[in-house]
Write a structure and sequence with these properties.
This protein folds into 2 domains: 161 residues, 3-Layer(aba) Sandwich (Rossmann fold), CATH 3.40.50; 140 residues, Rossmann fold (3-Layer(aba) Sandwich), CATH 3.40.50. The protein is 47% helix and 16% strand. It contains 14 helices and 11 strands. Strand 7, helix 10 and strand 8 form a beta-alpha-beta unit.
């Protein structure tokens, strides 16, 4: 069974409701049809009902089992306005601003999650990462004991033994532009937790750099080395090493030469990039040149599951992210 099919099967064990606020995008409609057909999540689509149904008809797909809500005409519009105002009034929000924001499907969908009318939200097919995450950070806020919200990709590579039978977490590839050593340490810890939660295997974390064990000397290298030491102090039981070049992290034969004493032995499955430039470039190279499945950006550190999509996503990518969000929702309820 493929990784994403195993996630779908897990999602079926306790069906969750996922809200999709970008229901006028044909990829969302096609994905909704696939999700409902496979039966691993309940779907709420936000937008004009007639327009959404017309898009489904034009694409010859069945979304009859989806719940469709027009935020402006919803029975809960005033209820969500009042609650958003209460949540944000200490930050200067007035009632008129709350009324305007609840008409925005992403804000409406986030309030659905906040008020337990949905279990998770997936957006980003037509919205930027900031437009997807801003309502989540304002309304849902960070999870307990979390210092930093970050974003990762679940990468599934075909025909390879690298990583966990081809499965990797790449982090942070979508949110924090230039994390310092402390922030990089928090990203590593969250990413290890995400790998363990979704893959059900022990994370092996590599802190990536253009240097291995001091083969180069710069502030960029020092940041990664410091982050590695900080993480070891916080999580002594975690299998983590750095700073490591990519090949020393994932290729046992190279690790034997460059990092002979590494606890990872070239078998890293959780890769922490030193900045957003390298992370974002790295996942896209892997996705396109290695024909890898790339699910994300998936968010870690938000109180309830909210996940971003790449604006270049396919309908199958959306299906996968919804399945992952449903499983995160299950774990969130524990």
């Amino acid at each position: 069974m493929s990784f994403i099919n195993s996630i779908k099967e897990k999602a079926k064990t306790s069906m969750k409701t996922i809200v999709l606020p970008e229901a006028t995008d044909r990829r969302i409609i096609i994905a909704t049809s696939k999700i409902l057909s496979e039966g691993f999540a309940n779907i709420v689509l936000l937008g004009n009902k007639e327009l959404i149904q017309n898009i489904a008809k034009e694409n010859s797909v069945d979304i009859s089992k989806a719940i469709i809500i027009d935020p402006e005409n919803s029975d809960k519009y005033e209820y969500y306005v009042e609650n958003l105002f209460e949540i944000r009034k200490n930050k200067g929000m007035d009632l008129e601003t709350a009324k305007k924001l609840i008409k925005d499907p992403v804000y409406y969908g986030t309030m659905m999650v906040k008020m337990n009318d949905a279990d998770g939200l997936v957006s980003g097919a037509i919205h930027s990462t900031s437009d997807t995450l801003r309502p989540a950070l304002q309304i849902l806020k960070t999870a307990p004991n979390t210092k930093l919200v970050s974003a990762f990709f679940l990468m599934v590579l075909p025909n390879t033994n690298y990583g966990e039978d081809g499965i990797f977490v790449f982090s942070d590839c979508g949110l924090n532009e230039n994390p310092n050593a402390e922030e990089l340490s928090e990203i590593a810890i969250s990413s290890a937790d995400s790998f363990r939660m979704l893959v059900n295997k022990e994370p092996k974390v590599a802190m990536l750099s253009y240097s291995t064990y001091g083969s180069a000397n710069s502030e960029m290298v020092k940041k990664v080395a410091d982050a590695t030491e900080l993480t070891k102090q916080k999580m002594p039981s975690l299998l983590i090493d750095g700073e490591l070049q990519f090949d020393a992290a994932v290729v046992p034969e190279v690790a034997e030469t460059k990092a002979k004493n590494s606890v990872l032995h070239g078998k890293a499955n959780t890769l922490i990039f030193p900045d957003l430039n390298s992370g974002n470039i790295g996942y896209k190279i892997t996705q396109r040149l290695a024909n890898a499945e790339a699910y994300g950006p998936l968010c870690q550190g938000i109180a309830k599951p909210v996940n971003d999509l790449s604006r270049g996503c396919s309908s199958d990518d959306i299906v996968g992210v919804v399945a992952i969000t449903a499983v995160q929702s299950q774990i969130n309820m524990l």
